[in-house]
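2024-03-11 09:14:02 INFO queue: dequeued item DUF8196 domain-containing protein, len=162
2024-03-11 09:14:02 INFO validating residues
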Amino acid sequence: DRLNRLTEKVDRLAEAQLKTEQSLIKVRMDLAGLSRSFSYAFENEAFRHLPRFLKEKYGIEVVERLIRKEVRGKEINLLGMAKKDGQDIIIVGEVKMRLESKKYKEEFESDVFDELEEKVEAVRSEYGDIEVVKVLVTHFASESFLKLAREKGVIVVQSFEW
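2024-03-11 09:14:37 INFO prediction written
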């Protein structure tokens, strides 16, 4: 009798665990969807504000509307034809909520710059030999990240700047 009760309790616990796991999967999916929605909304803000900001601060005139596009299997968050000093250029950009530079984040930093560089290479292979201006748009970037970006020739735009 005691063994039967114990078996029933273990069975109920296993069932409860399964329901918990299923609920957790649903929460993760909902959270991922919410995260994507926030990211796309932030990208849409960048589409509106970036052209004026780039012209005022960097002398870059966006001549075709910035778009989000897949190029050679890579999703480019910000892509657009522009001119600087009369030269045709193309803007290739990523939008990230937060960009920090800390010792424990070194791997992440490399990933952000590596990811951007992979996208630049995809764009170059598609659009040919045109100067590419690399842009990262964020809500916040740490001073050390900004320094590293300058060293790598990447324009970082924080949302409060526009």
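2024-03-11 09:14:37 INFO annotate: The chain has three helices and six strands.
2024-03-11 09:14:38 INFO item closed
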